[in-house]
Amino acid sequence: MEDTSLIHNRDAGIERLLEIMRALRDPEAGCPWDIEQTFATIAPYTIEEAYEVADAIEREAWDELKGELGDLLFQSVFHAQMADEAGHFNFQDVVRVMSDKMVSRHRHVFGDQSNQKSADQQIADWEAIKAEERAAKAETGTLDGVAPGLPALLRAYKLQKRAARVGFDWPTTTEVLAKITEEAAELVEARETLTQDQVEEEFGDLMFVMANLGRHLGVEPEAALRRTNAKFIRRFEGVEAKLAARGKTPVQSDLSEMDALWDAVKADEKAAKTAK
């Protein structure tokens, strides 16, 4: 009979989780669903778990964050187990590579460099070290290494940040705002005269410049949009609650009434903040 003591040892740490993953993927005694998964099928779950971590942080849901971080860790363990089975690498290799990277990138902590640096100097040093790493991978282009699989808005932000390092950037937000006005006007024209494909292209141009404005303002656009999404949900649910108090649903209401209730919800939020 197979020894499962490690799996049931709640104090065994990461080794317990690794053993659980090995058991789940066991070709004979494992879970059918886990066995049939591949890197490609698991990747969407990995992305989803990362966003759930970000969501818990955004909501300051610290009790939930523990579980969400565990879910994200499990994704790394899952990928590492599949890689081990295929002969690519194992979990300890992942840990080793990450540890080596952190030591290499923090020479002011683990090396002979001084840690008495400004934040700006540390950022400059960090970027120089990452440039060395990209060069070692033969990534010589300015935009090489910006992952294609990133969410489009986040990737736009990172592409522009990378281009700015070599001077391809507007000097102030004034120029960015002017470009937004220009792109918005082009979108209006596209809507009236161009094909749907061209409309999509113009809309993408506007979104791209908006991401650049965020960078100039020190705002990460993906985080800002997540925050606005959460605010929209909160306020619309407030509208629904006020409609329910009237014995109605949104379908039984109209835009005029819901718009007025939206303003009422905003006023309630403002009053609650003032009361604090």
TrEMBL record:
User: From its record, what is one biological process in GO terms?
Assistant: dUTP catabolic process
Under Enzyme Commission nomenclature, its number is: 3.6.1.8
- Name the Pfam families for this protein: MazG
Cite the entry's keywords alphabetically: Hydrolase
The organism's superkingdom is given as Bacteria
Which top EC class is given? hydrolase
State the protein's name. Nucleoside triphosphate pyrophosphohydrolase
